[in-house]
Specification:
Blueprint: H1 2-26, E1 43-44, E2 52-55, E3 61-65, E4 75-81, E5 87-91, E6 94-99, E7 103-113, E8 116-126, H2 141-168
Parallel strand pairs: 1-8, 2-8
Antiparallel strand pairs: 3-6, 4-7, 5-6, 7-8
Helix pairs in contact: 1-2
């Protein structure tokens, strides 16, 4: 009886752990496509603090910050929006992205150096008045992580009991 109960307990805990992991995978959100339209000789680097922003009537502006590593000095940083009917950008080292109309565009940070041109981009989606802002992707959220960790801890705690039952045979 104890053997069957232990086996069932381990099976249920394993299912809980796997269920939490499967839920985490099901909430993945694909990155925006296509990439911004930049010349082929520009090299992509990671310098922006955000790579996706949502603007709306309640949130008509966002600030983007570019942090260019020292290895690119001396450099000139410039910004532009691919579609100024959707969002405009006014900037120096930080960029203020402002809602103009509904739709999607890219804001591009361009870094010109003696060695070439580099860029990073942020996808900008301007929401309609009725359209709710999406929840940022969380890879399953905190609850899934907690449930997965609890399931794993319970499975590890059940191992000594299982080994003891195996020895009693």
């Amino acid at each position: 009886m104890k053997k069957a109960l232990t086996g069932i307990t381990i099976f249920v805990l394993a299912l809980a752990l796997l269920g939490g992991l499967a839920f985490a995978q099901s909430t993945y959100v694909e990155p925006p496509e296509p990439e911004p339209d930049v010349p082929a000789d520009w090299e992509k680097i990671d310098i922006l603090d955000k790579h996706e922003i949502f603007l709306s009537l309640e949130n008509p502006e966002e600030i983007l910050t570019a942090t260019v590593p020292e290895e690119y000095e001396p450099y000139e940083l410039s910004w532009y929006s691919e579609d100024t009917d959707v969002a405009t950008v006014t900037a120096m080292s930080q960029a203020r992205v402002t809602r103009q109309g509904v739709g999607g565009t890219w804001v591009v940070a361009r870094v010109d150096t003696d060695d070439g041109t580099y860029y990073d981009a942020c996808a900008v989606k301007v929401l309609d008045e009725e359209e709710p802002a999406p929840t940022p992707p969380t890879a399953g959220g905190m609850n899934t992580t907690i449930y997965s960790l609890i399931g794993l801890a319970l499975m590890l705690a059940a191992l000594p009991v299982y080994k003891k039952l195996q020895q009693q045979r």
